[in-house]
Automatic annotation (TrEMBL):
This is TonB-dependent receptor. It comes from Brevundimonas pondensis. Pfam families: Plug, TonB_dep_Rec_b-barrel. Residues 53-162 form the TonB-dependent receptor plug domain. Belongs to the TonB-dependent receptor family. It is found in: Cell outer membrane. The keyword Isomerase does not apply. InterPro entries: Beta-barrel_TonB (IPR000531), Beta-barrel_TonB_sf (IPR036942), Plug_dom (IPR012910), TonB-dep_rcpt-like (IPR039426). It comes from the Bacteria.
């Protein structure tokens, strides 16, 4: 029997298709007179060069700044609603740490030293750290989501895909944009961005943003705001174009998030009345700082050859009181923590373009360091387990990708990347008698025996990741493609590993691989009145790095990271828009995934042995269906400007938080409803927008922890998405 969610999904799809087909005759009749109103080509850089979206043999979602504003998007987690088969959300127990999965592949655990499964790029700079990666949307040109492994051009840790945050280049003319917003829970956003030429070749510009909001709930123990926001962010860039063939850009950014610590909601008694409230006693201080500096140079050597260099440095710190896992005033299960990291990257690219061929080749180098520490405080046992360490990573890669037009219709692309990583680790895990360890300021804590883990080690990981695709233009507006690509996520060491219980932890874990086979069709129909992209794919996922955490009395919470799984993932995706009239252009997104473990060999705490538990495990953060429909309708008011109304509905199927089913914690299927009403002045100088998010006030969990033992206080806690909010914003352009 179909669920209510599935019936709504089927109805939504039927309405969209029926409306499009019924309008088809009028499309054909009006084609000659209204060609100018067709949907414009979208240019993306999915293959490290500018190409029309409909011509790229890659599954790409591109969301322009205009669409982001029309849908009331606040940060990059909006991609979860607007991208098929994607999870892009705030990580459990944090305010600005990113959890991302694409097509069932990703990484939920933000611990230092762990690698993400979806790469994040700000322009061409790789961001290795998930902390502070929930980027607010300001001064942006577009967002791109590349689905499927991108191991050839984007390299390691893009095994599920890549997210690109593309900022604007500075204008040749002076510009200034001021934006203010006020909304629910006393939300206040203030954003200023602009640029000015200093002379004919030199421009300077920047943006600064201040975001504040009261909490959705309250810490009933301390009285502090809970789920609040306190963020300051800024960017500054200088661009120099000394000649038509040379371009240089120096850019810096900094973000400071001082929002209160987020502790979650108890799903077992004693519970609070509100899901955004807590009785946590660990404290409310939170602090995340990220900053970066990049230098980009481009030299157009000739019409056929461009040389590009991207040099970047980034670092970040995370501190504060940590997460209260039990959600109660007593220190039953508290986790104070600290993280820090830094990275230097250098990439050189050569871009080639001829009459029938184009491509890119290059080298990439990264030198990164990540460190951290946390206490696991089990207050009922008066026991604390300290875990701390550092991981250094050195990565080198060479890559190339070339496309050749065999005929005017048939093109072939071949690419490959060889990557070598070296990781060095230093880890310590020690039990103490007392509440907190000396590292977290309890100097009277007493060590209990020898360290559980105390080792240094290093390992190398290398892999060749090829990609091949063929595309065929059935018409100038319709392209089909078939592709094969491999993704590679680096191996590493479990920074929670307990060698006293699991001696193999000091050997680390090996890389994981995804081989994806895909066929797709994209382009336009009916004189570009209907635009669409659809893809069918199969992924073979091997050596999956699975993190399992258990409480084994009387020690502490222990972790096991194994190359436990191999699996098979089938999926289908559709993105479409139809110009029913010049004023009404609905958009539809659909995604379907069937992901199953073939093998899942891991430690069974009930038997104390390693067993294949594939029949008891399922993919986390991977709903079977995802969908989105937006129905923007615009009205031209003549000399009074224009108005566009954009209602939007998003569907997400049932989701498990972890590979093991936890009925109390796992999230069922749900819908979210948003709407934005936006007025723009005739000269586009002023804009007023009223945006409503989660209008049905849906309560849905986006993450959680599960430690249900009595000694840990029956700590099953959930973290929830935002409630219903309404925001009024005013933008002025000068």
């Amino acid at each position: 029997m179909r669920t209510t969610g599935q019936l709504r999904l089927a109805l939504m799809t039927s309405v969209f298709i029926t409306a499009s087909l019924c309008a088809a005759p009028s499309f054909a009749q009006q084609a000659d007179t209204e060609q100018a109103s067709s949907v414009d080509d979208i240019v993306v850089t999915a293959r490290r060069r500018e190409e029309s979206l409909k011509d790229v043999p890659v599954a790409v979602t591109a969301v322009s700044s205009e669409r982001l504003e029309q849908t009331g998007a606040a940060d990059i987690t909006t991609l979860q609603q607007q991208t098929p088969n994607a999870t892009v959300q705030i990580a459990r127990g944090t305010n600005s740490t990113l959890t991302s999965f694409i097509r069932g592949v990703g990484q939920q655990d933000p611990l230092w030293g762990f690698e993400p499964g979806v790469g994040l790029y700000v322009d061409d700079v790789y961001v290795a750290r998930p902390q502070g990666a929930v980027l607010d949307i300001f001064d942006i040109e577009r967002l791109e989501v590349l689905r499927g492994p991108q191991g050839t051009l984007y390299g390691r840790n893009t095994i599920g895909g890549a997210i690109k945050y593309v900022t604007k280049r500075l204008s040749q003319d002076p510009e200034l944009t001021l934006k203010g917003a006020y909304g629910s829970y006393n939300q206040v956003d203030l954003i200023a961005s602009g640029s000015t030429p200093l002379n004919d070749t030199l421009r300077i510009g920047g943006a600064i943003a201040r975001y504040t909001r009261d909490g959705y709930g309250t810490n009933l123990t301390t009285g502090a705001e809970h789920y609040n926001k306190d963020v300051t962010a800024g960017r500054l860039s200088v661009e120099w174009t000394p000649s038509d063939n040379l371009f240089f850009r120096l850019a810096g950014d900094r973000t400071t998030d001082e929002s209160n610590a987020r502790h979650g909601y108890r799903l077992k008694a004693p519970m609070t009345d509100g899901i955004y409230d807590t009785r946590a006693g660990i404290g409310d201080d939170g602090y995340v700082r990220t900053r970066g500096l990049s230098f980009t140079g481009e030299w157009n050597v000739s019409d056929a050859l461009t040389f590009k260099s991207v040099t970047a440095w980034r670092d970040g710190d995370t501190a504060g009181d940590g997460i209260d896992f039990d959600g109660l005033p007593q220190p039953i299960l508290d986790i104070p923590g600290y993280y820090a990291d830094s990275q230097f990257t250098q990439e050189f690219q050569l871009l080639f373009e001829g009459e029938r061929w184009q491509g890119v080749a290059g080298v990439f180098y990264m030198d990164a360091s990540a460190e951290g520490a946390f206490d696991t405080v089990v207050g009922l046992a008066n026991l604390t387990t300290f875990t701390g360490g550092k991981v250094d990573t050195e990565s080198f890669a060479v890559f190339a990708d070339f496309s050749y037009d065999l005929t005017d219709q048939l093109s072939l692309s071949v690419g490959g990347r060889w990557t070598k990583d070296k990781k060095s680790v230093d880890q310590l895990r020690q039990n103490y008698l007392g509440i907190k360890s000396p590292f977290f300021h309890n100097l009277s804590a007493i060590p209990l025996g020898a360290p559980l883990t105390d080792y240094t080690n290093s390992d190398d990981y290398s892999e060749f990741t090829p990609r091949i695709s063929a595309s065929y233009k059935f018409t100038p507006e319709l392209t089909g493609y078939a592709s094969y690509g491999r993704g590679f996520k680096s191996g590493g060491f479990d920074m929670r590993g307990d060698a006293s219980l699991y001696p193999e932890t000091i050997n680390g874990y090996q890389p994981e691989l995804v081989d994806t086979y895909e066929i797709g069709l994209k382009g336009s129909l009916l004189d570009r009145r209907i635009n669409f992209a659809t893809a069918l794919f199969k992924s073979d996922y091997t050596d999956q790095q699975i993190t399992s955490q258990f409480f084994i009395p009387p020690t502490s919470v222990v972790s096991f990271v194994d190359n436990a799984g191999s699996s098979e993932i089938w999926g289908w995706e559709l993105e479409a828009s139809a110009r029913i009239t010049d004023s009404f252009v609905p958009r539809l997104t659909l995604g379907y995934l069937d992901a199953k473990f073939n093998e899942f060999v891991t430690f069974n705490p009930l038997t104390g042995k390693r067993e294949n538990m594939a029949d008891q495990r399922h993919f986390q953060n991977t709903p079977d269906w995802t969908a989105n429909i937006a129905l923007p309708y615009s009205v031209d008011l003549g000399d009074r400007g224009s108005v566009i109304f954009t209602p939007m509905a998003s569907y997400r199927g049932a989701t498990q938080m972890f590979e093991t089913p936890i009925p109390l914690l796992d999230q069922g299927a749900y819908w979210l409803y948003d709407a934005t009403l936006m007025w723009t002045a005739p000269d586009a100088r002023y804009r007023v927008s009223l945006a409503g998010r989660n209008l049905s006030d849906e309560r849905y969990r986006a993450g959680g922890y599960n430690f249900p033992a009595a000694i840990t206080g029956d700590s099953v806690i959930g973290f929830y998405g935002a409630p219903r909010t309404v925001t009024l914003s005013v933008t002025a352009n000068f």
